[in-house]
Amino acid sequence: MFKKKVLASLIPLVFIQPVYANESKEAIKLDKVEVTGILPEKLESVPGSFDIVTEKELEASRPFSIKEALGNVPGVNVVQNEDPLGLAQNIGIRGMDPRRTSRTLLLEDGMPLFLAPYGDPSSHYVPMLERVGRIEVVKGSGQVLYGPQTVGGMINFVSKPVPKDGFAGSVSAVGGNNDFYGLHANVGYGTDLGGFMVDAIKKEGDGIRENHEFDVEEYTLKGQLNITDRQTLIAKVGYYKEDSNVSETGLGEVDYINDKFQAPSGKNDFFEHERKSAQLQHIFQIDDKMKLSTQAYYADSYRTSFRQTDAPGGYDEANNATGITVLERCDTPGVPFTEAQANACGGRHRPRSYNYWGIEPRLDVSHHLFGVESDAVLGFRYHEEDIRREQYRGDTA
Predict the structure, then answer these.
(1) What's the CA gap between 132 and 142, in Å, rounded?
(2) How confident is the model at residue 201 (pLDDT cuts 50, 70, 90)?
(3) Which residue of 153, 191, 302, 340 has the fewest CB atoms within a 10 Å radius of its CB?
(4) Which domain covers residue 377, as residue numbers?
(5) Could you tell me which of 282, 334, 286, 352 has the C-alpha nearest to residue 109?
(6) Which DSSP string do the residues of 287-341 spell out, in sequence order?
(7) Which 3 state secondary structure label does DSSP give 369?
(8) d(CA 204, CA 207)
(9) Distance CA 100, CA 102 (A)
(10) Are 127 and 112 contacting, i.e. CB atoms less than 8 angstroms apart?
(11) Separation CA 379–CA 377 (nearest Å)
(12) pLDDT of residue 40
């Protein structure tokens, strides 16, 4: 068991960026309805470099996975080596190790998405793309505003806003080979006072390799209340569940030639993930130069897996490569990796539970300190998390 309390003091957490008068007329501004984006309204004040994948671009490209959604963002490397849907996120920025995205902070509307942002920064979840309205990517010095784990950079998934003018909704379905199908239903209602929106998403298929079935579903409820012209309250709760048979075993050269789609351990290997989350945001535009944004968040996750591990090709008694994969617990030189062998070899069972919560106020101020028009950000974060990690080695589950 691991329990960690973190008081991340960001006072003063300040960046100063000159904003010259002759540039103000050309300043790029974000759509005001997307109040949950975390980049400043004046994008030229962002230190370092940034990229935005807009809703229009997402609609035009219809990406199937995060790899496709971020495919045109310079410096971002998404490794999709475990499943075609991109359920296991491996994202690296500017050469950082992409393994479980441990060096790139993932956020949704400013809320951390890792299993445990400070104690176990690994990613097994990102929002379904059907409910994402924009993706913000920050590289360079600007990423320090959002920590932790921002050595590589920061990626923020901005959820779509609630309707503003009466009822709105949509239903979509997609299908493909290997028995893949996806369903998405969205309905909401809104007025000038606020509104709500419900999303339900389900995806299921057999995967590319044998015995690689997956079943994923996500449900989200989002509400918005416009308290005054300058104050907005946004609440969101979500539930996510994944049940997949995805192996971590590879294939040797001979295995690949015999059947490149085989996964003999797939019937035993499984990964299950359940995540519950809640987020509350209060946005107060104090005046034209000051904005106070406060968020409180909570997430509870349980993931368990049984995986068999292998070596990428065995060796015979003369130490010559056989081109045949061997399992960690059944290293028999020259013996092909079979489903029967997988049943006898056993593996690793890893149940883990995580929960964390935090609160973070942040004040954005435009000022003329030292006679230069600049922006400053001040705030702090209190964050607490509880981690329980277990691992057992034994017979096939």
Answers:
(1) 22
(2) very high
(3) 340
(4) 2-394
(5) 282
(6) ETTEEEEEEEEEEEEEEEEEE--EESS-B-TTS-B-S--EETTB--TT----HHH
(7) helix
(8) 9
(9) 5
(10) no
(11) 7
(12) 62
Which single residue is written with the structure tokens 């009466």? 166
Token duo for residue 13: 């957490």
Asked whether the predicted pLDDT for residue 72 surpasses 50, the reply is yes
Q: Could you report the per-residue pLDDT of 239-283, keeping only the tens digit for each? A: 999 999 877 777 777 778 888 888 888 878 889 999 999 999 999
Q: How far is CA 32 from CA 37, 47, 232, 233, 285, in A?
A: 10, 21, 12, 15, 12
**Closest alpha carbon to 204 in 225, 183, 232:** 183
Q: Are 178 and 155 in contact (CB under 8 A)?
A: no
Measure the CA–CA gap between 179 and 296, rounded to whole angstroms.
Answer: 40
Compute the distance between CA of residue 262 and CA of residue 345 in angstroms, rounded to an integer.
Answer: 18
Judge contact between 91 and 76, C-beta under 8 A.
yes
Tell me the whole-structure pTM to 2 decimals: 0.85
225: three-class secondary structure by DSSP: strand
HSE-up of 275 (CA within 13 Å, CB side)? Answer: 25
What does the angle CA 43 – CA 49 – CA 54 come to, to the nearest 5 degrees?
A: 60
Q: Which residues contact 126 (CB under 8 A, 6 or more apart)?
A: 66, 89, 106, 108, 113, 157
Number of domains in the chain: 1
Contact 299, 282 (CB under 8 A): no
Rounded CA separation 195/175 (Å): 32
Write phi, then psi, for 345 (nearest 5 degrees).
Answer: -85, -25
94: buried, middle or exposed (CB in 10 Å: 19+, 13-18, 0-12)? middle
Residues 6+ apart with CB under 8 A from 267: 211, 245, 339, 342
Q: Which amino acid is at 291?
A: K
